[in-house]
Write a structure and sequence with these properties.
Aspartate Aminotransferase, domain 1, Aspartate Aminotransferase, domain 2, seven-stranded mixed β-sheet, four-stranded antiparallel β-sheet, 14 strands
Length: 379
């Protein structure tokens, strides 16, 4: 039996919880949303969309940003614009959300799953190179949970083998690697604004890149490829992937708070590491030299024999929200036949790890309480 929790503490009351990834919405967001509603521009036309795109591009110091309906749509459009298609292979880490791989199938290509680094949990450059064939056309590095990949090594491989790079930065807005923002190293970077992300538009995503002509074409494609100068005329296959003015209004307000969100998430990450540093069986994601994570979520590994479901139950009893890591994609019925290697690190990390509360609606006392509960469980 584990130690009995102190139910007199605020965070242990039945009516309150310590949030995993709940969105942080305040008066500024309500103000912008009301402006959008009052303007009558509630759908895909309105001034907040270009303003949000411009603000986002300026923050990342990129040529342009194009808003989309979701992060998944952003990845789809990036691959589509690069001409990835039937007969092509795209290298993807096995340890990621399924939305990294599905857009590869949307364009008719096949994902090739490779293992991740045992310390950073990100796609391993040596595993990438070992999996390159004559059919390989692109790499999708994922900055997992806001921890930047080794982009210099990945870009060197891309140059060596003439491969495209689409960064899945859906979890890493604000993370940096050797002075550059995640999502700005490859041909395209793709971001998500789902309700649980660092900033939210409710749904929504964004594509950024260095080629303004390609980004302009993506902007055209996500609007059903409509040539508005000719009315309802569509010279290409288009997509209904546009962001709404309401979503952009929310995103613009959230961008004004981004630095505060990042500071808080990084502080939470530091607290977890400090408070649990004296337990040798506990480990966190490590960063590459020159990297600073955004730490969308802080995740903890508890060794090969950890009973993660039991820990989740113990924390839930105290009102502490947690989540399992992404299951290796080769466990999905869609992708079991794609497992060509053992993927030992991906499976070991999944089996032994847990995502901890990271919502900016929490405070430092909440994080201390989570650490106290974890110590009681493992010691």
């Amino acid at each position: 039996m584990k130690a009995t929790p102190d139910y007199t503490s605020r965070m242990y009351t039945m009516s309150e919880e310590i949030y995993l990834d709940a969105p942080d919405i305040g008066d500024g967001e309500k103000k912008y949303l009301n402006e959008a509603l009052d303007s009558g521009y509630v759908s895909t036309i309105g001034p907040f969309v270009p303003e949000f795109e411009g603000t986002f591009a300026k923050y990342l110091n990129t040529e342009r940003a194009v808003s989309t309906q979701s992060g998944t749509a952003a990845l789809h459009m990036a691959l589509y614009e690069l001409g990835i298609g039937k007969g092509d292979e795209v290298i993807v880490p096995a340890l990621t959300f399924i939305a990294t791989a599905n857009p590869v199938r949307y364009v008719g290509a096949e994902p090739v799953f490779v293992d991740v680094d045992s310390k950073t949990w990100n796609i391993a450059p040596d595993a990438i190179e070992a999996s390159i064939t004559g059919k390989t056309k692109a790499i999708i590095p994922v900055h997992l949970y806001g921890n930047p990949c080794a982009m210099d090594e990945i870009m060197k491989l891309a140059g060596k083998y003439n491969l495209r790079v689409v960064e899945d930065a859906t979890e890493s807005l604000g993370a940096t690697y050797k002075g550059g923002f995640s999502g700005t190293f490859g041909d395209f970077g793709c971001f998500s604004f789902n309700g649980n992300k660092i900033i939210t538009t409710g749904g929504g995503g964004m594509v950024v890149g260095r080629d303004s002509a390609k980004l302009e074409h993506i902007k055209f494609l996500v609007n059903q490829a409509r040539d508005e100068s000719k009315g309802y005329y569509h010279p290409e296959l288009g997509f209904n992937y546009r962001m709404t003015n309401i979503e952009a209004a929310l995103g613009l307000a959230q961008m004004e708070r981004l630095q505060g969100f990042l500071a808080k998430k990084r502080a939470f990450n530091d607290l977890y590491r400090q408070e649990l540093s004296n337990i040798p069986t506990l480990h966190f994601q490590e960063t590459y030299e020159g990297a600073e994570g955004s730490w969308w979520l802080t995740c903890l590994s508890i060794g090969n024999k950890a009973d993660i479901p039991a820990l989740q139950r113990a924390l839930k009893e105290r009102g502490i929200q947690t989540r399992r890591l992404f299951m290796p994609l080769t466990e999905s019925p869609l992708y079991r036949a794609h497992k060509k290697a053992a993927l030992e690190n991906s499976y070991r990390i999944y089996e032994s790890s847990l995502c901890l509360p990271g919502s900016t609606r929490n405070n430092d006392d909440d994080i201390f309480s989570v650490c106290k509960a974890i110590r009681e469980f493992v010691m």
